[in-house]
Design a protein that fits this description.
Shape: globular
Strand content: under 5%
Helix content: over 70%
Number of helices: 6
Order of helices and strands: HHHHHH
Radius of gyration: 22 Å
């Protein structure tokens, strides 16, 4: 339930941020309305509360996990870029660049959350490249790529589904 709330708040927060960025670029007066200034804080508070709630339930230390640490660091960068985009950017071009960089940062955050890897969107590609490299090494050493690892190592070793031997 908390995860659904967290993901929903994240989607609404990103959509709202994107809309406010569009309004900033178009110099729309709705950007300055009270509702537009208050609603993001309410959504982000719910987003943060749901994240903390999940950490408490899972009894997880966010700094002990590489992907959570990467997500937190990227979140701090996203906040700074958002502040530059909507408050502290002195020129229109600085605000637009900060907004674009914030969107790239939030895309990274989402991919890190989805892949559970600090590499984000690169994780599946690197895993596939590593598997491809491993397959070519297996072929060079005479092992067949399709045979299970447990059959290819000495009988005293067993392998788990992730390829680790124990």
């Amino acid at each position: 339930m908390l995860k659904i709330l967290h993901v929903s708040c994240a989607a609404l927060s990103i959509a709202g941020f994107t809309l406010r960025g569009y309004w900033m670029i178009m110099d729309d007066p709705r950007l300055r309305s009270r509702f537009t200034r208050v609603l993001p804080h309410l959504l982000d508070t719910l987003l943060l509360a749901s994240a903390i709630g999940m950490l408490v339930i899972w009894q997880a230390n966010p700094l002990a996990s590489e992907w959570l640490s990467a997500k937190i660091i990227a979140l701090l960068l996203y906040i700074v870029l958002g502040m530059v985009a909507f408050r502290f950017g002195r020129t229109r071009s600085v605000r637009i660049v900060a907004f674009a960089m914030a969107l790239l940062t939030v895309f990274y955050i989402v991919t890190v959350a989805y892949t559970k890897s600090p590499l984000g969107m690169l994780a599946p590609a690197l895993a596939q490249a590593a598997t491809g490299s491993q397959s070519s090494l297996e072929q060079q050493s005479g092992r067949t790529a399709g045979a299970p690892a447990a059959q290819q190592v000495s009988p005293g070793w067993r392998s788990c589904s992730r390829g680790f031997r124990y």
